[in-house]
Design goal:
alpha/beta; 2-enoyl-CoA Hydratase, Chain A, domain 1; Lyase 2-enoyl-coa Hydratase, Chain  A, domain 2; 2 domains; 6-stranded mixed beta sheet; 4-stranded mixed beta sheet; 13 helices; 10 strands; globular
Amino acid sequence: MTKQLVSTTTEGSVLVIKLCSPENRNSLTSELREQLGDAIERAEGDRAVRSVFLTADGPTFCSGGDLKMLKTACDPWPVHRRFRNLSRWLTPLITLDKPVVVGVRGAAVGGGMGLALTGDMLIAGEGARFITGFFRIGALPDIGTMYHLPRLIGMARAKNLLFSGATISAQEALDLGLVAKVVPDDEVEAAGLAEAARLAEGPAEVMGLAKTLMARSFETSLHDMFAFEGLGQALAMSSPEFREGLDAALESRRPDFVHAGAEK
């Protein structure tokens, strides 16, 4: 029987995805990555899911790559196969057309830091630490770190953190803009779930569309971004969520995006 390394539960319209391999510091073993892919596929395919909250059990959010596995699987073809498999779990998480909140307690190391940065909003416990770590073992930053970090804090700061092998405290991450909020460690889950629930009550698919467009902003000309905005807005304004939001604004009431979205 396969051991459960990733659990999924629903809280209203929120799918809670939890890494649950604390004895292995939630390292990114092939089994954990496969189960994480299954969880993200569920989030992607279930229209009742309007946001995702990703967090972890135990004192470590994620310790990154499985070092014992890397010892025996660092030849070119095993590495190539692992990274080819990113399209099974990491790419769908980054491009998920629904809001994703990540809650971090303890250390997010190397690829674990990369995993944390995939969220649209990151809630950190006061004791959280973000450890770049890659160059300590002579490896390139991966799990999307070289994609997300420069976009979040700028190229110069990203290079400084990665090349210095820095450990970033929760407060430093907040000051840099990497995290949205710092809370006591024992409140991470409640705070993250509350934020995910708040986002789930919004126009979730429209926010997902905005994610898709913003992801192109650094490589796209102003002219093309305006074209994307126009096409995206035409889609957004044809949705029941837009009609509900507009009616609610005109009627001075709270919009009910959840039930409006169910009409699609």
